[in-house]
Amino acid sequence: MKVTTNLRRESTRSHAFVRLSGDEPMTKSLRRPASDAVDRLLNPKSIAVVGSLREARFGGYVTTNNLLRFGYKGKIYPINPQYDTVLNLKVYPSVKDIPEPVDLVVTMAGAPAVPKIIADSVHNKAKVAIIISDGFGERNEDGSRLQQEIDRIAEAGGLRLLGPNTIGVANPAIGLVTTPYRVSYDKMIAGGVALCAQTGLIGPQNMPLEETHYGISKMCDFGNKCDLDEIDLLDYLVNDPETKVIAMHLEVVRDGQLFLQKAREVVPKKPVIVLKPGRTRESQRAMASHTGSLAGEDVIYDSAFKQAGVIRVDNFRELIEIPKVLATQPLPRGNRLAIVTISGGAGVMAIDIASTHGLSLAKLSAGTLEKLAAVSPVLASNPVDLGPGLPAYQVAGGIASPFPAMIEAILDDKNVDCLAMACPWGVRGKIAEVFGPMAKRNTKTTAVWVAGPSLAMAEEMNRDFEAIGLPTYPDGDAAIKALSVAVRYSRIKAQFSAAKGQVR
Amino acid sequence: MKVTTNLRRESTRSHAFVRLSGDEPMTKSLRRPASDAVDRLLNPKSIAVVGSLREARFGGYVTTNNLLRFGYKGKIYPINPQYDTVLNLKVYPSVKDIPEPVDLVVTMAGAPAVPKIIADSVHNKAKVAIIISDGFGERNEDGSRLQQEIDRIAEAGGLRLLGPNTIGVANPAIGLVTTPYRVSYDKMIAGGVALCAQTGLIGPQNMPLEETHYGISKMCDFGNKCDLDEIDLLDYLVNDPETKVIAMHLEVVRDGQLFLQKAREVVPKKPVIVLKPGRTRESQRAMASHTGSLAGEDVIYDSAFKQAGVIRVDNFRELIEIPKVLATQPLPRGNRLAIVTISGGAGVMAIDIASTHGLSLAKLSAGTLEKLAAVSPVLASNPVDLGPGLPAYQVAGGIASPFPAMIEAILDDKNVDCLAMACPWGVRGKIAEVFGPMAKRNTKTTAVWVAGPSLAMAEEMNRDFEAIGLPTYPDGDAAIKALSVAVRYSRIKAQFSAAKGQVR
Fold first, then answer.
1. CB-side exposure of A102: number of CA atoms within 13 Å?
2. Which of A107, B54, B166, B426 is a good FRET partner for B156, with 20 to 30 A between their CA atoms?
3. Is B184 in contact with A353 (Cβ distance < 8 A)?
């Protein structure tokens, strides 16, 4: 029952990074292998939903309805002793009464009822259970005891748990959406970003995933992490063919040593982007009073992430936005940036952001400058400034008219590794036509932003760009920061591969 | 003719901050007093528009039409020898033929035609001219000479100039909009933010001012600054009763010494927020090659701004967003922040941002905690977390139900100076009803953000908040950064007042 209570969360097996300094590292042998369970969690063939089946804005009815609305094709078993059918599905009085072992049990029943539900799930030989219910370790000592109890029952019975205090998971490719909150849309876009978090801020109930055409491979809210955690998801996602980039929000890393070891295995294959709150003493105190993790460890996190090739971002917006460029674009070979701007002033600001983040302004080749000048003399420089020519383009062939030749010239230039492109709103309605060939070619890391006097119009254009595989950002700063992360990952990947080569 | 070419702009009288170190400061006596001209620029009783009157997306027809659409009530004189009437207005062949002296001449005629138009404007005894046309100092040496020529003609004739290479000005209170680009809406909101820039990124042709209910007092694009500049606008805006906060984007400060002196006069009365690009060597080079300003001066700008009490922001988004809280909210008495969050995880992130920017988490008084607990036991802490109770509120009285008593308790607490408030999308449609009393009370500096699964819905709610005078931000980070600037300005104002007291 949440969107969400992390502040009061307590990880019953909390192992903070302070352990890195030698104090009782959790050894690998303590962990049960979970890849099969995580696969069932994210690709269940059958799901039992245990909770209120009253038509409301929250509960078992909503989860069941979400599964149907998002097109989940597996078997759904609503569980409730007071109903015979709901949403044309047969209702079973308890998990024990389901005629087959299910892959996944989802429950949002009140905390005191959960141990019985877990025991029933063990009896059913279910593979994994999502405990959406709150009132456990995050609440108080009674809750902690209850959490330990369900953990014990599950472990003894070979059942794996996600949560408690989670909104669960999503897998757009199969219409899997376990959130117990009503969602205002009924379609998620399948894509390359795996998004994991220790907060219900993620998930379709709270993110405009459809409106922004945001492509998700898998989504997972860890909740209190009484069992499955970031290590288990890394283990699974590194081999998940749909996942191109892994983005994680982590309040507590349960086993720092092991996390770094896993990350080092994953990073040469896929980028790992992490948001780790608790940068300041005040927020550390806020978390520490509830999670038992020690204050003062942020510097340790910072350097540990760097060692492991994990890229740390500064805020939640970046955690969501930055992975898009990594999920859809080729990796840049260098840091040389071409900028397309609709204003000289914006061009200067773009250079500021670029050089702050380690990108350099590409020196366009003489051939490129000639080709640009052939489109319009005022275009022959980097930043390529559409501004001065706008009135002329409007008269000549429309604002879209200079784009195809201009973009081709830039993409053909061997001095260009990546492209940050502003798109004026006059190109509205022609995105696929004008930029489709460029998106198909997919040779240089590109990030786009739309500027204009209407939010609705910009959002429509962003969707059109995302639909052809070009990632969009709210402004030039965000686009360029994302490109700089792609450059950084490209270097990290090369370093890790070189280091591996040396070890051989 | 622009959106915009600052990269190639050249300020013919460029005086960079390097002058601060003693080298030939521009003395005050070289400047002609401009406050009357700036008043005519921003409150003209009559306007001549010189440019193409063909119905198009750019030009004199568009400017004339914009003035009519935005409800400008003064006299409009379209100028063109080829037309008799346009948009039901009598057209005059030249500015010389206008039967009365006009306050303002606006021209977007081709650069070579501009000297004649300026001479005609002098003949007309016009007060001020906006030269939208480009192809002057920002283009090449010929353009520089042309710019010097018009400057000479104007100065000799007592005419003041804005530009060239500008989109001009706006004053929503009187429907004044000089942009030569078609605007997709026809209403600007009058408010407390004066927005000045050396770029056409500002202005209704490029900003969703109506959709975001953004309240503007005055807007001014300086362009090449051949005459009127930031000093003249500061002089005017400090006494403009509509202006509560002054936000400026400045590529080049023409007279550093004088700017600092002016800023020191303004800052005790109104906050001055500045975006000064050119933080890095690469962007400095990009500007330097076209403006003649010297590289390496960013540190000097930084410390000079600090001395003068000018608050420097990091990017264009902040330049636009941060002033909203200063334009609408009371100044905070201290730095103690209350946070309303819909998620514990978001609460931790909010504390991170707050403490990074010098805010401290308010310790709610025992009385406040009691009052919050009376609404719901899970609310009794700071951050005040709506998350755990959401399902219960949905059942009880709707998601809006806890807000009135909760907000009142927080605002009554003497330990709270400012409030960062997340609003869940379930409160949609009830903003005025639920938050109207709080907005009316207007006792504590407040910034709001809306979280939810739909952009359109969030935008609608943001508009509803802005309409009752509560400033909205895209996320908690932006809201808290804005509050931190309000705290900073509050301190600066107190320091400047104390220093003034000592001098007496």
1. 31
2. B166
3. no
Is A17 strand, coil or helix? helix
- Round to whole Å and give the CA distance between A401 and A306: 44
Q: Are A255 and A19 in contact (CB under 8 A)?
A: yes
C-beta atoms of A387 and B212 within 8 A? no
Q: Are A248 and A197 in contact (CB under 8 A)?
A: yes
CA–CA distance, A471 with A462 (Å, rounded to integer): 8
Structure ipTM: 0.91
B167 within 8 A of B195, measured Cβ to Cβ:
no
Cβ contacts of A407 within 8 Å, gap of 6 or more: A340, A421, A435, A438
B384-385 and B336-341 as β-strands: parallel, antiparallel, unpaired? parallel
| List of chain A residues whose C-beta atoms are within 8 Å of the C-beta of residue B349 | 277, 283, 315-316
Handedness of CA A190, A192, A193, A196 (dihedral sign): positive
**Residue pLDDT, tens place only, A67-87:** 999 999 999 999 999 999 999
A201, A204, A475: residue with CB nearest B346: A201
Residue with tokens 């899970």: B378
Asked if A183 has any chain B CB less than 8 Å from its own CB, the reply is yes
Tell me the nearest-neighbour CA distance from A134 into chain B, angstroms: 8
In B377-430, which residue ranges form alpha helices assigned H by DSSP?
Answer: 390-396, 403-412
Stretch (H or E) spanning A128: strand A128-131
Tell me the per-residue pLDDT of B180-204, one tens digit each, with 9 for 90 and over. 999 999 999 999 999 999 988 999 9
How far is the C-alpha of B17 from the C-alpha of B304, rounded, in Å? 9
Sign of CA dihedral A364, A370, A376, A378: positive
Q: Which residues of A touch B458 (CB under 8 A)?
A: 208
Coil/strand/helix, residue B119? helix
**How high is the mean pLDDT of chain B?**
90
Q: Does B484 touch chain A (CB under 8 A)?
A: no
Select from B225, B285, B275 the least CA-distant residue to B255. B225
B110 interfaces chain A, CB cutoff of 8 Å: no
**Confidence (pLDDT) at A30:** 67
Exposed (0-12), middle (13-18) or buried (19+): which is A321, by Cβ within 10 Å?
buried
Identify all chain A residues contacting B351, using CB atoms and an 8 Å cutoff.
280, 282-283, 286
Residue type, B297: E
| pLDDT (tens digit per residue) in A172-201 | 999 999 999 999 999 999 999 999 999 889
Residues of B in contact with A8 (CB under 8 A): 344
Alpha helices in A397-475 (DSSP H): 403-412, 431-441, 455-467
Inspect the interface and report whether the beta carbons of A348 and B457 lie closer than 8 Å: no
Tell me: pLDDT of A450 over 80.
yes
Query: Would you say A194 and A234 are in contact if contact means Cβ atoms under 8 Å apart?
Result: no
Integer Cα distance of B451 and A206 in angstroms: 7
Going through B121-207 in order, the beta strands assigned E by DSSP cover 128-131, 160-162, 169-171, 176-177, 189-197
B208–A454 C-beta distance less than 8 A: yes
Q: Measured between CB atoms, does A313 come within 8 Å of chain B?
A: no
pLDDT of residue A11: 37
